[in-house]
Amino acid sequence: MWRLNNKKALVTGGTKGIGRATVMEFLELESEVLFTSRSESDISAFETELKDKGYSAHGIVANSAKKDDRIKIKKWVEEKWGKLDIVVHNAGINIRKKAIDYSEEEFRKILEINLTAPFELSRLLYSNLKESGNASIINVASSAAMQDVGTGTPYAMSKSGLLQLSRSLAVEWASDNIRVNSVSPWFTKTPLTESYLNIAEKMKSILNKTPLNRVAEPEEISAIISFLAMDKSSFITGQNIIADGGMSVNAT
Ligand SMILES: NC(=O)c1ccc[n+]([C@@H]2O[C@H](COP(=O)([O-])OP(=O)(O)OC[C@H]3O[C@@H](n4cnc5c(N)ncnc54)[C@H](OP(=O)(O)O)[C@@H]3O)[C@@H](O)[C@H]2O)c1
Questions:
Q1: Cβ atoms of 26 and 226 closer than 8 Å
Q2: Is the pLDDT of residue 1 over 90?
Q3: Can you give the pLDDT at residue 74?
Q4: Is the CB of 182 under 6 A from ligand 1?
Q5: Which residue has its alpha carbon closest to ligand 1 atom 20?
Q6: 239: helix, coil or strand?
Q7: Quick one: 215 exposed, middle or buried, by C-beta within 10 A (0-12, 13-18, 19+)?
């Protein structure tokens, strides 16, 4: 049961960072994987890299915030797999600003990618998840969902909404044996955070707040996603697993 045994998995935002580590780990655990990204060249480069390592996964150019692109994902799943066992809503963006400085367009963009897309894509794929008879949705939230960590208000709002999306769908879809959980990472070394973590004073401030005195590797987050995807976690639904090196329990 510590495997994914040919389960069919979709990972949004699968070419970089946490999504990429998740695709790799799912393949190592013997899952079949479909991943998305907005960049055709990133997808073909990752597909080639995987082939060289002896794995086969399919990538689709799709912006999960766009309805037509979500329909494209649905069509692929319908045609190739029919059922779907795992969905990881990982694609996410941030724009860091003071609340007063966001344009309406920036605010909407963050909410559309981080929150609306997981809701709409989950609904679109509901029949395929139901057909699985044993499905798991994992939403990648953030420490920012639970407290202000200086990421900017729209990002925090979107991730907080994602936690409640997980709880509500977990209850509504439990009778279809679809589990829905969240993972909330604190700072993790990925392209999204690279430039921020390269600022020495920012890194120092993060480490001061983090008892384990380091940031996470993407593989430390994909390990939790994999656990929630597999049958070993079969009685866990509606929960949020926090991976923050002790940051949230530190008041020293
Ligand atoms: N890194 C952290 O410290 C951290 C902490 C807490 C939570 N998180 C969350 O973890 C998730 C992954 O973050 P990350 O740090 O791994 O980010 P990343 O390094 O920027 O990677 C994000 C991936 O998602 C894709 N993507 C972004 N927007 C997309 C969209 N609209 N449709 C499809 N694909 C899209 C990107 O590819 P393209 O750009 O090619 O589309 C890329 O493959 C995000 O939800 C983020 O909010 C990260």
A1: yes
A2: no
A3: 98
A4: no
A5: 192
A6: coil
A7: buried
Average pLDDT for 217-226:
98
Closest by Cα among 183, 189, 170 to 224: 183
Q: Please work out whether the CB of residue 188 comes within 6 Å of at least one atom of ligand 1.
A: yes
Ligand 1 centroid to 164 CA: how many Å? 20
Q: For residue 78, give the amino acid letter.
A: E
Give me the pLDDT at residue 101, please.
Answer: 98
Test site for ligand 1: of 109, 192, 197, 207, most ligand atoms within 8 A of the Cβ: 192
Pocket test for ligand 1, best of 44, 142, 190 (most atoms within 8 A of CB): 190
Q: How far is the CA of 176 from the centre of ligand 1 (A)?
A: 29
Closest by Cα among 172, 197, 180 to 237? 180
Does ligand 1 have an atom closer than 6 angstroms to the CB of 243?
no
Tell me the domains of the chain and their CATH numbers.
8-189+217-242 (3.40.50.720)
88 in contact with ligand 1, CB cutoff 6 A: no
Which DSSP string corresponds to 94-133?
Answer: -----GGG--HHHHHHHHIIIIIHHHHHHHHTHHHHHHHS
pLDDT tens, position by position, 176-216: 999 999 999 999 999 999 999 999 999 999 999 999 999 99
Does the beta carbon of 248 lie inside 6 Å of ligand 1? no
The overall average pLDDT reported for the chain is: 97
What count of other Cβ atoms lies within 10 Å of the Cβ of residue 147?
10
Kindly report the protein residue whose alpha carbon is nearest to atom 2 of ligand 1.
188
Q: Residue 172: enclosing H or E segment and its boundaries?
A: helix 153-172
